[in-house]
Structures are given as structure tokens and as C-alpha cells.
Amino acid sequence: MPSKQLISRSIEVFYNKASEETRLDKGMGVFEFERIKSLIEKYIPSSPSRIIDVGGGTGKYSEWLAKKGHQVHLVEPVPKHIKIAKNRANASKNKFSVHLGESRKLEFPNNFADLIILHGPLYHLQKREDRDATIREAKRVLKTNGIVLGFAINYTASTLVGLLNGLVHKKSFFEMCKEELTTGIHNPPDDFPWLLAEAYYHKPEQFRDEFTSQDLTYLNMYAVEGMAWLDKAYFANMTNPKRREILLELIKITENDSYLLPFSPHMMIAAKKPTTYGK
Q: What count of other Cβ atoms lies within 10 Å of the Cβ of residue 103?
């Protein structure tokens, strides 16, 4: 089965059990979907463009981008997600293409895309050389002055959750947190099988370095959730229009604050392929 060469067994097992299709429809996922769309919109060219959605899951973002009139290509290593994404594309008026593949070897020519979104690869690849290969491939496929948007999980994410809900006092959970805080490596303990499969959790400055070391021009870094999710009545307040407005304003005024970035579970980097590339 080709997927065994594309993605590690533990990641495939995790996604076969979990529902990526419904994740963005509930809890933090609802807010995450809207927030990430607003971040991507900052960098979408106004005219129809070629966009590659790498690690695009079941195609919710690809569908949204295709509806905006762009030529969208989804790349995904999990066969379960590919099947759902193909059904979504076939049912949509605005078609997008769906490819079984992975981030280190994109089946696209040089200088092909205006925008590349690296949604899952950079936090599912634990080795630096694999993440470097992913960013290098994105740079190869990008047109000159094209934009790459990368998403990462913050190295503080589990620890903050553990502090908020008391899990940090469970030995196995705390051992996992220590590993993430010191090495970035995330492996869920056996007694927490519902946690994300093997992953890499970045420090913001290291995340930036992974892009600039590939001769990409750094543009900006954004907190996805920001620190607003620390509100003890977050879900209730996000359904209250006045309180939601306050939380969204808090996110907006702190989204690029490098000191506050580690309070956000996820972050997005924007980088550009410079004109001088290849000269």
C-alpha cells in the first residue's frame, strides 16, 4: 500500500481513528477554521492563481479557495482523507484536484504555484532534514515572489493545556511536556492514546530559521488562536457577540507579538521566494 511509504504508521493509525472531517466543526476547530481562513486571505492574490494545499486533509480549505476562483491542488498522504476530499471536489461546482502524495516530493514542476500552504507536514515531521526537504520542495515549486504559508504547533501547547486542566500532574503527561519543551519532539504516552500522533512542536524563532535558512524571505509570523483561548469561559464568550469582539480584538493586537506567540497553540509563518533565487 503506497501510504506506508508516504507517512508513518502511527500517524496513519491516528487519522484513521480520528475524524479530521468533523474536527473543524466543533470546539476549538470552529474558530480555528475561520481564523486560519482570515490569515490565508492576507496572502491570496486578488486575481485567480495556482494554489497548492499540502497536507490539505479532507479538502475544506481547498474547497473554500476553489470557490474564490483559484486553481487549487490538494496534496495529502492519508488515503482516508483523499477519498473524502475527492468526494468533496466532485460534489463542488468549483472543482479542485486531489493528489495522494507528501510534502517532501511534490509532483509539480518548478515555478508552478503562486501560493503554497504547508498545513500539516511541518508538525508531523520530527526530523529537521525532513522539514528542510519539505520547505525546499515548496520553494522549488513556487514562482518567483510566490508565497509559502507554514503552520506549526508551539512547543508550549501541551504544557499550557496540562496546566489549565490539571493533566500536568499526571506523570506520563508531564514527561511528554518536558520532552516537547526541551527537544520539540512530541510522542503521546500510551495512557493518552487520543493525543496527536508523533509530531514536532516548534519554538517560534526556530520555525523562522527553518524558512530563512532555505533562502526564503521572512514576511511575518502570526498567532493562530493567540492567548484568547486562555479565557476560562472561552467557548461561552465566543458565542456572545460583545465578548467575542473583545477576544478577537485581543488576538488582532497581539497576533504578531513575538513575546506572546508561545501562548498560542498554533502559529503561521509567511515567507516569499525572492527574485534573486537561483542567480
A: 27
CA-CA-CA-CA dihedral for 248, 252, 258, 261, to nearest 10:
20
Distance CA 51, CA 116 (A): 6
Estimate the crossing angle of helix 79-91 against helix 60-67, to 10 degrees.
30
For 67-124, what is each residue's pLDDT tens digit? 999 999 999 998 989 999 999 999 999 999 999 999 999 999 999 999 999 988 999 9
> From CA 72, how far away is CA 94, in angstroms rounded?
10
In this predicted model, what pLDDT tens digit does every residue of 207-226 receive, in sequence order? 999 999 999 999 999 999 99
In sequence order, the 6+-apart residues with CB closer than 8 A to the CB of 260 are 223, 226, 227, 254
Residue 181 contacts residue 156 (beta carbons within 8 Å): yes
Strands 266-272 and 142-154: antiparallel
How far is the C-alpha of 275 from the C-alpha of 279, rounded, in Å?
A: 9
Angle formed by the axes of helices 128-141 and 204-212, to 10°?
Answer: 50
